[in-house]
Amino acid sequence: MATIDDFRKLELRIAQIKEVNDHPNADKLLILTLDLGDRLKQVVAGIKNFYAKEELIGKQVVLVDNLDPVILRGVESQGMILAGSDENLLAVISPDKNLKLGSIVK
Description:
single chain; CATH 2.40.50.140; 2 helices; 9 strands; 40% strand; globular
């Protein structure tokens, strides 16, 4: 069971997807370049089967910003975007209004 203190450790921020590329070593992964206003981050996300690259560009998403980088199938991922899913659908979590890039999600 997670506590509120565990949740507070996460740094959730608003980022905008600037660039989307296919992962060279995985069919279901995309490489996203995210803009946080003051810096860019690269994130590998398993959303290729649910989104066309063109529909992701410009979209604001919620980023878990303070995760340690990991290598996913040979490509570094510097965070994680949030999404919800059921058996047949996956939806990236987005604010319903555009926010300043880098804004903290509370």
